[in-house]
Design brief:
This protein is mostly beta strands. The protein has one helix and seven strands.
């Protein structure tokens, strides 16, 4: 049986074999790893964004969804040979969105970028204390 060669399937097979990851052709080129930590008084979202400048990172909250986006650009020289022999680090635009829990206070979010790690701190609001409601009889 004669079959046609599928270049996209071959590219996916090579990508999986070389990098150990599955490639579907529609995945973004750069998807930073993220840790989410719950502390006593806040939630922390930590994203690996090594090589990015703070001005290339955008953070916004809308409708109780935290979105971190930006672009990590390939460092290329203006003229002449780049000298690259192998490129394994991921580059390109990315967007990561996370629904905030009900206890998150989205109005007082703080962001810090140090050593290639973005840390977004989302304070928790105090949970309302349950109150007893007395049953009335007439």
């Amino acid at each position: 049986m004669l079959t046609l060669w599928d270049p996209f399937a071959e590219l996916g097979r090579l990508h999986t074999g070389l990098l150990g990851r599955t490639w579907h052709g529609t995945e973004p080129a750069f998807r930073p790893s993220v840790d989410i930590v719950e502390e006593e008084k806040a939630y922390l979202v930590k994203a690996d964004l090594a090589g990015m400048k703070p001005e290339d990172i955008k953070i916004e909250v809308k409708n109780n969804v935290l979105t971190v986006s930006g672009e990590r650009k390939l460092e290329r020289k203006e003229e002449g040979e780049d000298g690259y022999r192998r490129i394994e680090r991921e580059y390109g635009s990315f967007t990561r969105s996370f629904t905030l829990p009900e206890t998150a206070e989205g109005d007082n979010i703080d962001a810090n970028y140090k050593d290639g790690v973005l840390t977004v701190t989302i304070p928790k609001r105090a949970e309302p204390e349950p109150r007893q409601i007395e049953v009335q009889t007439h």
